[in-house]
Amino acid sequence: MSKNFYITTAIAYANGAPHLGHAYEAILTDVMARFKRLDGYNTFFMTGMDEHGEKVATTAEKNGMSPRAFTDTIAEKFTALDDRMNVSYDRFIRTTEEAHYKASQTLWEEIAKNGDIYVDAYAGWYSVRDESYFGEDELTTDGAGKKFAPSGAEVVWKEEPSYFFRLSAYTQKLLDLYESNPDFIEPASRRNEILAFVKQEGGLKDLSISRTTFDWGVPVPNDPKHVMYVWLDALTNYITGIGYPDTSSENYKNFWPADVHVIGKDITRFHAIYWPAFLMAAKLPLPKKIFAHGFINVDGQKMSKSLGNVVSPGDLLDMYGVDQTRYFLMREIPHGQDGNFSHEQAVLRINSDLANSLGNLAQRTLSQIAKNCGGAVPAPGPLTDEDRELLESAQVKMIESVRGEFEKFHIHRAIEDIMRVAYDANAYIDKQAPWALKKTDVPRMETVLYVLAEVIRCLAIIMQPITPEAAAKMLDQLSIPANARGFDTLNAAHAIKAGTTLPAPTGVFPRMATETETAKQANA
To answer: Where's the motif 'HIGH' region (predicted)?
Structure first.
């Protein structure tokens, strides 16, 4: 029986170009999707664009474009960035697709059948930027009397007819969900925030789910004067993309409920409260997990145009390279927490881990094999305890520990486990000194180089989700066939074969010059 795994990013809002947070979320989700594929799962990875709403319509108008033409240009920027970052999505969904209109309207009708939609008038404080209403107790007021949402966006008073979703009827059902499934929201800090919000005095308030003041959205069934409120429309993408409303389709049967929605911490409420409530009302299964990641600061400060510290994803890719950027972001940002980017730390990490440890290990070993073993994997002789210990770490223990960390979304810790094996292998080559053994004990030299080649094979296989291009080059240099690169080959039974002819080795992770070194070169 095949194992299925469905993972999504949040769909990016189509009112501007992608920023570093979008890049981080896409890479984080891609690393998990790649890991699951290599671990034998039938995996479906979806990302995409949220294209409706007043903010998009307003921004398009300011740019002298129709909403559709404007969102087309934004979608091109996101897909171009995803492709450049090697994001291996299976589906890039856009909420302007005809299939999504059908899915959203069907979900609306299913909720209405349950009696959880009614029409009324709405008056409240509304943030265009957040596409959300806020209670008076959630707002702050400045000296000029202007009111602001928790996000810092200014709110305005709005009154209009609206359809409502009976969110109030789901207060206890949601609390029961969180209690029966403590891992539904991760990390725990986000779970605690959601619990506090749902447990607020009086419980949850009914939710406005339609608008009449603009028409850029999915029309409400049987009442085209209204368009769907952006969150009911947007959240439905997760089931549109796998075939809903055709619940008998192969993709829907295989992949719903989703295993995990990966989102930013600022939209946890919509995913952990609204989305499960909508699904309960429509009598559909709930996703298994909502994982809310943190934000990326720059040099210890929140990115801000006024501070002049905004870093674009393209700048990072240009400066460090694709795999290096992927590695740094995954290595430096802890589970669900805010992370920090600094150029100094990026160069230090790339040089220390990738160039000096992993890249240098491969280059030294493969150069020795090319020079001293006729360019073919040598045959090992009797193994010492040190040989066996290193091989067991690479072939058995590494995948066990890394798999456990990935299950908890502790990708930074998984990378620590991988690099520990690389550090041990570097210590091993320094101690065994195969370049010296060539003069005193050739059979032992061949055994040491064989052990190192096998460890590098294991390291390259397990690094594929994080640094796919570089890992593939390392495996090419070991002449590992494309069909022998899954995690099921991380064992002695699939060890590299003695006598395998290897191509001439080339460096995979070049070392980056530090600012001090660059300055010295400039002044030389």
So the answer is: 12-22
Do 158 and 73 lie in one domain? The reply is no
Assess whether 160 and 200 both reside in one domain.
Answer: no
Backbone angles phi, psi at 335, to 5 degrees: -50, 110
Cα angle at 191 between 185 and 195, to 5 degrees?
Answer: 125
Co-location of 405 and 466 in the same domain: yes
In a domain, 62, yes or no: yes
In this structure, is residue 123 part of a structural domain? yes
DSSP per position, 209-245: -EESS---SPEETTEEEEEE-HHHHHHTHHHHTTTTT
Same domain, 112 and 122: no
Mean pLDDT of the 63-68 span: 96
The number of residues in the chain equals: 524
Taking each helix axis from N to C end, the angle separating 360-372 and 468-477, rounded to the nearest 10 degrees, works out to 10
Please report, for the domain that includes residue 33, its CATH number.
3.40.50.620
The answer to whether position 229 is within a domain reads yes
CA-based R_g, the chain, Å: 26
Q: What pTM does this model have?
A: 0.92
Burial of 165 (0-12, 13-18, 19+ CB in 10 A): buried
Strand order across the 339-341 sheet: 301-302, 296-298, 339-341
Over residues 458-516, the pLDDT tens digits come to 999 999 999 999 999 999 999 999 999 999 999 999 999 999 999 999 999 999 987 65
- One domain, residues 187 and 287: yes
- Among the candidates 248, 263, 293, a domain finishes at 293
φ and ψ at residue 92, rounded to 5 degrees: -105, 105
Six-digit token pair at 319?
């400066």
Could you tell me the residue range of the domain that residue 206 belongs to? 4-116+166-293
In the sheet with 117-127, reading across from the earlier edge strand, the strands are 132-134, 117-127, 156-165, 207-208
Residue type, 147: K
Whether 28 is covered by a domain: the verdict is: yes
Mention every residue, 6+ apart, whose C-beta is less than 8 A from residue 388.
none
Q: Is residue 149 located within the same domain as residue 8?
A: no
Q: What whole-number percentage of the chain has pLDDT above 70?
A: 96
DSSP character for 393?
I
**Cβ contacts of residue 116 below 8 Å, gap of 6+?**
165, 166, 169, 281
